[in-house]
Amino acid sequence: MAGGAAASAALAGCSGGGGEETETTETTTTGGEETETTETTTTEDSGLFDVTITQGQMPSGLDPHDHRETTTDIVVLHAYEGVLTRDAAGSIQTALGTNYERIDGENAVRFDLREDVTFHNGDELTPEDVAYSINRVVDEEVGFASPQSDQLAGVAGAEVIEGENAVKVNNSSLNPIVFSEFATYLDVMQQSWVEDNDKAYIGQNMNGTGPFQLDSYTEDEEVVLTAYEDYWQEPAAVDTLTFRAASEASTRVNQLLQGETDLIVNVPPQEVQRVTNSDNARVAAAPSTRIIYNGMRYDVEPFDSVEFRQAMNYAIDLESIVQNVLGGFGAQTGQPTLPEFVGHNPDLDPYPYDPDQAEQLVEESGYAGAEIELNTPVGRYLKDLEIAQAVAGYIDELPNVTATVRQRDFGSLVDELLAGSIEARPPWFLIGWGEATFDGGLVMEALLASDGTLTTWQNEEFDALLEQAGNQSGEEREATLQEANAMAHEQCPWIFLNQQYSVYGVNDAIAWEARSDERIDAYAMSQQ
């Protein structure tokens, strides 16, 4: 229940109403087909509309090409945009691009660009900026080794189409998911601004084309954005957008109910009723595109044994974890690809809870008496520590394995995972991976291919399947990815855990719905 001066101040920007909604429809041509995009704009009668969002962590920096965390993405995507985007239902929509199509006879695609778009410094968007941004991600020689290069898997580079407001993107193969990739990734930056500033400056400042521009940034404390009045669409209804962080879920809930923030992430199951019963807030939830898993390094003992890795999956009661730890806000998994994704194999079930089978497999592995330590972040994912403790607890109940938990700072854990080699990664860890393209191939490329960004496993047959899928499309590609999922299920490079649900607490004064891709889009917010 909110009360006092703090609540009044926090809610001041969310009071008022009686605004008018107007709809505008834009028709674009996409590869010969017409697509209509309808945008709704809410005009408020009076008063400021200020919103504060509290995540589990602050962004690692503000360079949109130099991170891999959703928490950073959520912040920078308010200032930076791509050529394509997705709506709340996951459908591809135009953004800085107005048309996209494949170029006949070539492994290439074309993007026509929007006119009269300006960066926050007032300069106009050019096709050179778009081509440069693509090359900055996929080509180390253009700027740096971007950790996002695999997000544009199959993209070889980009060039301006001479005399036109358009760019050509060259692919190394057919690249059947190229438009899906660009609808999810690749934020456009201004070439001259990037080249005129050093890496440290770019990481602490922003100059995008999005609906919000940077007002102030206090590292590890606060990011404040304001509506960009010259935005190419209608200006945002939100006047000031502030991002803060609190790693403890209970702290975030208290801040929401006391009116100190307007939207919080990862409301734990035991707090849902308290939010629902409050006078000023509600819970909004949606199944996300994020899978939570325990990576096990195949190159170190005891995880170099398939039997041991299988034993770890049999050892845990995953159904109980989902119901009792997550309160039902999750779904069991048994493969790297979620049900909503391309390539999901419907014939694979999660591993059943069978501690006797687990004990036997440990004996067969030759690693009876093994002592293992699970590295886990705290506060990054819904009930991450509690999931880790439950997993280690079940495994520790086996008479021939000892398991413990090591709590880790999320940033330092991610640094180890992104270090560039399997040898630098912890032997056993809990992590989450969201793939907003809804493509199982990209998940497996990043997490399980021999050269994957976070891989803990190497298998030539598995790599060959992914390479094969990269040159296929439609049902043929789907079947190959399903085969890859079956191999991963059997080989157990992970302890398969859960599909995460995104569970938010939201100020009742804000109209906003949760998305499956975990994006918190303040441009879509209005007062109610």
TrEMBL record:
Query: Which InterPro entries does the entry link to?
Result: Peptide/Ni-bd, SBP_5, SBP_5_dom
Keyword Transferase present in the record's keywords: the answer is: no
Question: Where does the source fall among the domains of life?
Answer: Archaea
Region Disordered, residue ranges: 1-49
Write out the GO MF terms: peptide transmembrane transporter activity
The record's SUPFAM superfamilies line, in alphabetical order, gives: Periplasmic binding protein-like II
Keyword presence, Signal: yes
Which keywords label this protein? Signal, Transport
Q: Which GO terms describe its biological process?
A: peptide transport
| Ranges annotated as biased composition (Low complexity) | 1-13, 25-44
Please report the name of this protein according to its UniProt entry.
ABC-type dipeptide/oligopeptide/nickel transport system, substrate binding protein
Organism listed in the record: Haloferax prahovense (strain DSM 18310 / JCM 13924 / TL6)
